Amino acid sequence: MTLETNTLVDRTPMPMRKWAQRTRRSFNWLALFQGSCFVLVECVTFAASTLLLVLGLPLFLFLLLAGWDLTTLFAQLGNLADHYRSAEPIARHLFSSDLQIAFLICVGTLALIRMPYFLRRLERRLHEDEVSHA
């Protein structure tokens, strides 16, 4: 059994040679599609890794404060859950909105810090791709 690697984009008809000679330069739709998919995959990878870093940061800090002891960590989390359950609805709402705002600030800050490296890496990878296809 052979693996077919042709996609629908690969099967699109290319412009006729007469029409291509009339215009100064034909546009390579396949390269545009491949480049767009590459950039989309890289951006999704960047966003996912940023979110995972921000979500793992509180766990790291809580484990650090608990002295890397899971029993102490879960005891403190149980204490926090008891206080949250016994709080008034307005206090719960304010606490959850504060957590959401803190999460968004952390994600935005980390994304801004990581953005220059991501853009340099993306530019380098796109340039390597252009050189290999030339």
Description of the structure:
- The protein is an all-alpha fold.
- The protein has 4 helices and no strands.
- The protein has helices at 17-22, 29-65, 70-86, 89-133.
- Helix 2 (29-65) crosses helix 4 (89-133).
- It is elongated and about 70 Å long.
- The two termini are 32 Å apart.
- The mean pLDDT is 86.
What would you say about this model in short?
The chain is mainly alpha-helical and 134 residues long. It has 4 helices and no strands. Helices cover 78% and strands 0% of the residues.
Keywords:
134 residues; mainly alpha; 78% helix
Strand-pairing-aware structural class: mainly alpha
Number of strands: 0
Helix content: over 70%
Shape: elongated
Determine the N-to-C terminus distance.
Answer: 32 Å
Q: Report the sheet with the most strands, covering strand number, pairing sense and barrel closure.
A: none
Please give the radius of gyration in angstroms. 25 Å
Break the fold down into its secondary structure elements and pairings.
Elements: H1 17-22, H2 29-65, H3 70-86, H4 89-133
Helix pairs in contact: 2-4
